[in-house]
Amino acid sequence: MGMRVTTGMAMNTYRYNLQKSTYNVSVARNRVLTGRQFDSFAADPTAAAQAWKIRRAMVDNANYQANNSDTYSRFNIGWATMGMIKKDLESEADAADIRARQDSTAGARVDLGKVLNDTAESVIQAMNSAKFGDHFVFSGDDEMNAPFSWSDDGKTLYYRGVNVNAGLIPNPADPKNIPDWARDADGNALGLREEADLPEGMPETSDDPNEQAWIEYYKAQKADLEAGGGNPPTPPGGNVPDWASDGNGAAIQLKLEKKVPEGMPASSTNDVEQAWIDYYKDQKKDADDPAYTAVYRKPSDPPGDAWGAVDKYGVPEKAKNVDETDDAYNRAWAAYYRDNADVQRLEEMSAEYENIDLGMGLQEDANGKLINGTAFDRSIPGINMLGYGIDEDGDPVNLAMIMKRLGEIYSACDPTTGAFSKNEEEARKLEEEADRLLDKYQAATDRTNASYTDIETKAHYLQQNQARLKLQGDYLQEERENIENVDLADAITEFSWDYYCYSAALKVGTQLLSQSLIDYMN
């Protein structure tokens, strides 16, 4: 006897198959509507893990493209600005060389001086006006403040608050900065000299034999004393000349005296030279007055620990408080310490960098130092464009300051003859300085042109890198679509089949319910 299939059994099987068909239709419909292969990690763990990696790479790529676009805009602004400066400088350099050196145009030197002065200021204005949004392109790391500024008198140029002519203040400890009158043949500082003064009023020679004998006696005595004195000459006989008398009828006796170096001026506007003048005066006072002890330090000796702890630039604490009321020694050393600190600050700002990740790897070595070539430096220190410091001749390296100095020299020339000065010696020195600066102006212009080329090269690289990143982004998008997205034609076909199966299941259900009712009634 065969087993009878009950209505409950049939209904249970039918419900299971209908739910499966419903689920298949729902999944197929969602695939058509969303275009996705899966909606959860559990649906396809392998594909989901691959898709996550690709999406993370796509986010990184989008950031790289945004950073690259931002950096390219900065460099493009810098390139355009430097291009205008380059054009102006080249035309002015040629004009300056012709109008300043040729005698036929010497009368135009005054006008040339004004043009050079105005050009220097326009270059600085152009550098300051290069902005990307609120950021100054040529300010290096400090992009929120204008890179350059002039002093109130317009003679000193600052880069982020630091004098671009730093390095001009002499080191008092350097032997070459000892004044010529205070230095011996070996370059060492002189001490007080010992000298015996001849009697006041003594003639160089005399026709009187007696007087001539006294003249020769005093000259011999002077030489003996200054040589160490072991054999003083015997005084001559006869009457003592009036100029050789001590007022009591006796002859004047010469004696050695401590004296400052020969040629020492009474004062100087140079703090280092004035410090040496004060030092020698103090030494002489010590030698002349037994009750006095010298207190003035030798200018070539640094203050050392007496001035307190130094900061990272080597500036002692006391140097920060020295002003014009202090003596020349303090002023000279304080000025040197501050100036040397400015040199270091300029070097630091010149070497500033701002690394940004543009998809080049961004890796560090074992010491935590960034590996070259894995990041891009987007910093553009304006100080590198125009130069800074002082050269071996004591002339400015900064392009704007060279133009300023040339403008100052030419503006002071005679408007008719072009003469540099009415004083021949001063005119010769000014002309030599002007010729020297003209050559350096051309060299500074070439350096600025090289900086322009460097910015242009980097801007071109950024343009190519943007194209590479976009291509890479398109490839990642395509790979993501291959993993996550369905083929629409296949998805529609699959949905049509699943819907057909679902519809068939409904029809089967109708028949099943009808037959089961008849069976129940029977």
Task: Describe the overall structure.
The structure is a single chain. This protein has 10 helices and 9 strands. By secondary structure, the chain is mainly alpha-helical. The longest helix is centred in the C-terminal third of the chain and has 61 residues, at about 425-485. The model has no long low-confidence stretch (mean pLDDT about 85). It is elongated. α2 packs antiparallel against α3, α2 (about 45-100) packs antiparallel against α9 and α5 (about 270-290) runs antiparallel to α6. It has helices at about 5-35, 45-100, 110-130, 210-225, 270-290, 330-350, 380-385, 400-410, 425-485, 490-520; strands spanning about 130, 135, 150, 155-160, 160-165, 195, 255-260, 355, 375. It has a 3-stranded antiparallel beta sheet with strand order 3-4-5. A two-stranded antiparallel sheet has the order 1-2. A hairpin with a 2-residue loop joins β4 (about 155-160) and β5 (about 160-165).
Helix-strand makeup class: mainly alpha
Distance between the termini: 19 Å
What is the overall shape? elongated
Q: What's the story with the biggest beta sheet?
A: 3 strands, antiparallel
Helix and strand sequence: HHHEEEEEEHEHHEEHHHH
Spatial order of strands in the largest sheet: 3-4-5
Task: Assess the beta-strand content as a share of residues.
Answer: under 5%
Low-pLDDT stretches are none
* Oligomeric assembly: single chain
Number of strands: 9
Number of helices: 10
What is the helical fraction, as a range of percent? 40-55%
Overall average residue pLDDT: 86
State Rg: 46 Å
